[in-house]
């Protein structure tokens, strides 16, 4: 089996690992999360669902972290056969590869929908998809170091402009829209956990990143940042969307976050309205998410077929393109994202604890100090 890591060149710092997890999590879902939560819960208490989901994601990430730290320098693709045997491991790896290919296609399609609807109207979707794919290929051929450096540039820009756009609507915020707290009981909050979990999945990429980290012991720091920063951003987005737009408007807008940004205007500034600027920046953010997913899928294929990762980057692109063109409408694409969220919870929330338990029982890997 070919090792997918290179100890001399392909190493990342703890900060870079954290940035990669954050960027992976902050994808297309941020634009629709408020509507998705309200469709499930139908109550202003969905902010509680977000907090609970953050706690669940952190716990799930801990199991991945503990598991990977038992097998230093190896990705989950590489050490899983040691735990379960090759036959079972390859079945799970194939499922994971299919998941990442489909996730890549979803992120790519959402990025294309936003670009086509707001920035490049009347441009064929396939041409936008092709452009993004080839740019991602050029980036990923450089390895995880190239991705990490780009993500370090994109994330601060994204966070600064996002917070400026969101917090600028505070003067329109009405806290009464969030009351009464738990007025419909705890049941709606529980209903909102599943879509919130779908939006916060991203911790799973740690099963690759830990193998590349210079100091794997500090993986817990990357996990903390990778879970809690996106949780806070989504929490702020949800609270402000309801407080400014109200329940009805938030639930009936295709992109409630974008509608929130459109709700205010500053006269006399260079950009009197920020939605176009935010769209450009968030497309950059979705692109980084897509590139990480594409790399994860290719890394799995390289392990399966004993090939170098770069050659498999070319092989997975046509598959991603085909899957991205399957949804006929935006709503079908959104439904695909919801199904992927459920699949992520089952795959990366359910399997790691079992694998960790089996590795301990069978005494595989190193003991975690």
Automatic annotation (TrEMBL):
This is Spore gernimation protein. Pfam families: Spore_permease (PF03845). Keywords: Germination, Membrane, Transmembrane, Transmembrane helix, Transport. It is found in: Membrane. The chain crosses the membrane at residues 12-34, 46-67, 88-106, 126-141, 153-173, 193-213, 225-249, 277-297, 309-327, 339-361. GO terms for cellular component: membrane. It is a multi-pass membrane protein. It comes from the Bacteria. InterPro entries: Spore_GerAB.
